Amino acid sequence: MSRAAVLCGLGGSLPERIVSNEELAEQLDTSDRWIRTRTGIGQRHVVAPGQSTSDLAVAAGAQALASARATAGQADDGVDLVDPVDLVVLATSTPDRPCPATAPDVAHRLGLGPVPSFDVSAVCTGFVYALATAASMITAGIAGRALVIGADTFSTILDPADRTTRAIFGDGAGAVVLRAGDSGEPGALLGFDLGSDGSGADLITVRAGGSRQRSVPGPAAEGEEFFTMDGRPVFTRAVLDMSRSSQSLLERVGWSAAEVDKVVAHQANIRILNAVGEQLGLEEKQIVANLDRVGNTVAASIPLALRDAVAGGELQPGHRVLLTGFGGGLTWGSAALVWPELETGRPHR
Ligand code: COA
User: Fold this and answer.
1) CA dist list (Å): 46 to 15, 16, 53, 59, 155
2) Which residue from 55, 169, 234, 238 puts its CA 20 to 30 A from 142's CA?
3) Are strands 262-265 and 320-327 parallel, antiparallel or unpaired?
């Protein structure tokens, strides 16, 4: 047994407004049928004017902290029920502003005091990267309890005329609490596999707004402030990189694919999830999917899928869980854990 980071709280938040495929089809040259058959998505949530990533992150964070307190109370293990966290890591690529990071504002609004807090930018792999960062700081003894949030509001950076990206992306936030424990406990993060390939940086990008574009005189070219994605190569790489990363982590942890109860992959496209399942030799019941209701929520995708799988009874204590993500950068990453007993309360939407 060794010191490990143990998952002990879970929460999530979605903005109120739902945009159905039918509503998109009224504005763009698309259809419910195309979106459902090509992506598996039926609707997505979108922030209201004035609502931002930090607003969703605060709501998800508060829920994860409440879940951690309730879980500690339920276990009656002597843990201080209002145990504060001493670290906040926020995965996002739609921060409230380019500078400073959004995490300090989130920590402040959650009343967490002067804790270290920072953003991690790895697009759709952001949550796995943030989880690995926080877990490493816990195992190194730098932190004792961490709030890890994945939050994004891609509706704020999409081209309103781009039918492809508007069909796929939705806004949301998901969060977990990690505490120091030992590697034999349920909830202990058992291992990570992380990677990147910057040669694919142009495949998923916002061209304007950074130092590259701002270091030349004049305004950005029209449309460059919007998010763009080259769908086909992204699809291929997502399948390849999530499959390889999952495989290499499974070998390290010593589980076969058949021994995994639930694979919670980044919710990009149902065809991507199914193709990863095929590569790993998984059965359909092993794959968690909630993208029909929320779309691709970027850094929030994995924790929101966890939350929905717990709420629906699909994910149970004792299940062997593999998390795997892929995103802009390009980046990818996987994590493994045995699902713990958690008190999560009713999902907030
Ligand atoms: N409605 C109707 N037609 C659409 C459409 C939409 N919402 N979006 C794209 N199309 C069209 C394309 O314009 C193209 O038309 P054309 O043949 O006249 O040029 C046609 O559908 C086929 O496009 P293609 O890109 O080959 O479709 P696809 O089956 O690969 O599906 C994606 C497109 C974007 C859904 C798919 O490539 C994908 O899911 N990629 C990965 C996206 C992703 O997960 N990104 C995040 C990763 S972190």
Assistant:
1) 6, 7, 11, 15, 6
2) 55
3) parallel
- pTM reported for the whole predicted model: 0.95
Mutate to test the pocket of ligand 1, among 202, 235, 242, 298 (most ligand atoms within 8 A of CB): 235
Give the mean pLDDT per block of 10 residues along the chain (349 residues): 95 98 97 98 98 98 94 60 83 97 98 97 98 98 97 98 97 98 97 98 96 91 94 97 98 97 98 98 97 98 98 97 98 98 70
Residues forming a β-bridge with 172: 152
Residue type, position 319, single letter: H
Q: How many angstroms does the Cα of residue 92 sit away from the middle of ligand 1?
A: 24
Q: What is the pLDDT of residue 133?
A: 98
Which of 20, 26, 36, 38 is the pocket-test mutation for ligand 1 (most atoms within 8 Å of CB)? 38
Atom of ligand 1 minimally distant from the CA of 234: 41
Does domain 1-349 match CATH 3.40.47.10? yes
The residues annotated with a catalytic role in the active site are 124, 266, 296
| Cα distances (angstroms) measured from residue 42 to each of 3, 22, 123, 155 | 42, 9, 22, 16
d(CA 342, CA 2): 22
